[in-house]
Amino acid sequence: MNDSTRERLLETGRKLFSSNGFRGAAVREITREANANLGAVTYHFGSKAGLYRAVLDRVFRTLAERIEAAAAEPAPPEGRLRRIVSTLFAFFADVPDAPQLFLRELASGGALPEPVVPYLRRNLAAISGVIRDGQEQGAFRTMAPQLVAFSLVAQTVWFAVMGRHLHIVTGDTTPPEQLALAMERHIADLLVAALQPSEDQP
Amino acid sequence: MNDSTRERLLETGRKLFSSNGFRGAAVREITREANANLGAVTYHFGSKAGLYRAVLDRVFRTLAERIEAAAAEPAPPEGRLRRIVSTLFAFFADVPDAPQLFLRELASGGALPEPVVPYLRRNLAAISGVIRDGQEQGAFRTMAPQLVAFSLVAQTVWFAVMGRHLHIVTGDTTPPEQLALAMERHIADLLVAALQPSEDQP
Predict the structure, then answer these.
(1) What is the percent of chain B where pLDDT is above 70?
(2) What is the pLDDT of residue B104?
(3) Directed axis angle between helix B77-94 and helix B117-136, to 10°?
(4) Residue B182 contacts by C-beta under 8 Å, 6 or more apart in sequence?
(5) Given an 8 Å threshold on Cβ–Cβ distance, is A159 in contact with B150?
(6) Which of A147, A179, A195 to mutate to test the interface with B (most CBs of B within 10 A)?
(7) Which of A24, A47, B59, B77 could be stapled to A20 by a disulfide with Cβ–Cβ 3.0 to 4.6 Å?
(8) CA dist A17 → A54, A116, A165, B183 (Å)
(9) What is the ipTM of this complex?
(10) In angstroms, rounded to a whole number, what is the distance separating the alpha carbons of residues A51 and A54?
(11) A128: exposed, middle or buried (C-beta count within 10 Å: 0-12, 13-18, 19+)?
């Protein structure tokens, strides 16, 4: 029973922290929605801050593990780069509230939540590693790997944040899933095209 | 005197809406910080919602006008594309809290604030227009102009949001202004490289 209470608190915590922010999500509301008693957050996580850390840890660990798996696939760099883009799209389809979990804090001028940092570092290392491999093999042009990794993540995360609002701006009536597929392909194609070795490069 | 009260309310409103969100910014706090009487928001803007609309209108109208000016410069498409990227970077250096103004609402699952929409449409039209010109002149490869415009904006906005936190992830100690310059150049170079006509394309 305790394990499933813990699970329910993590789920409800993720939902409420992402929609209301850390400060806006009350322990009373989390425990009520998780069908747990008021002391359950303290019992399982020490405090509301402990639950928030545990939620961030789970969400961003999952993402980092999936990105590392995609980056380590036995495929040429272009294929691995495309897999990383797909992995990010699949992740945000699975956990659409993931960006909100830290965006709310950033949007109010706060710091990047500390539990997220090690996972973002792992993502950066995995993605840059694929770019670097491609450059060493002569398949990709010279371009700072960390900056290319930023470009990949920026476009994917911004689509996770803005995707469902884009039709209001574009007037495009493509259904959401199809738009996500088109965007996933576009981002991968754009990166691959940008990384094509140019003739005037050594 | 009234004009300067109006100006101070717009300034203070922008500051407090971006740091606390629309709901989190109280009229009492706005008027106090703007050194105005409690009725000034109603007098000048009808309501807090009216002030919020006026703040968004001013910020995003300025951005749209600057992007349209950059897009209309008498220069080849590549130069205009680079100018648009610089314009966005300059704008976010001037008004660093601009993304927060609507990000907070998006981050809590809200809609894109309605006053922002016409300006985002103008930005999209201006940027896509430059891509289309380049494609018609054979200077850019075929790639959906709206999606390329999304890639440009996504990277720039995401840097405006994340830029000051990146060093925590990258361990890079480049001073903020230099990092912004490097990123500006990278985003422009990446887009130009991606748009290079490929040999196997008609």
Answers:
(1) 97
(2) 77
(3) 160
(4) A144, A147, B174
(5) yes
(6) A147
(7) A24
(8) 12, 14, 21, 31
(9) 0.93
(10) 5
(11) buried
Query: Is the pLDDT at B162 greater than 60, yes or no?
Result: yes
Share in percent of chain B as helix, strand, coil (round to 5): 80, 0, 20
CA distance B1 to chain A (A): 32
**Inter-chain CB proximity A190 and B111 less than 8 Å:** no
The tally of CA atoms less than 13 A away on the side-chain side of residue A134 is 31
Alpha carbon distance B12, B28 (integer Å): 12
Model pLDDT for residues B79-118, shown as the tens digit of each residue: 999 999 999 999 999 998 898 887 877 877 788 889 999 9
- The number of beta carbons lying within 10 Å of the beta carbon of residue B34 is 22
Q: For tokens 């990278």, name the residue.
A: B186
Write the single-letter amino acid at B95. Answer: V
Query: Which pair of tokens denotes residue A195?
Result: 């990384």
Both tokens of A74, joined, read: 């036995």
DSSP-derived secondary structure for A122-178: HHHHHHHHHHHHHHHTTSS----HHHHHHHHHHHHHHHHHHHHHHHHHH-----HHH
In chain B, what residues touch A194 (CB-CB under 8 Å)?
A: 190-191, 193-194
Find how far residue B23's CA is from the centre of its chain: 22
What is residue B105's predicted lDDT score, i.e. its pLDDT? 77
Q: Is the CB of A107 less than 8 angstroms away from the CB of B159?
A: no
pTM of the entire predicted model = 0.93
Q: Which residues of A touch B158 (CB under 8 A)?
A: 150, 153-155, 157-158
Q: Which residues contact B118 (CB under 8 A, 6 or more apart)?
A: none
- Give the pLDDT score at A2: 58
- Report the candidate in A23, A133, A141 with the shortest Cα–Cα distance to residue B196: A141
Span between the terminal Cα atoms of chain B, in Å: 63
- Alpha-carbon span A94 to A110, nearest angstrom: 26
The three-state secondary structure class of A196 is: coil
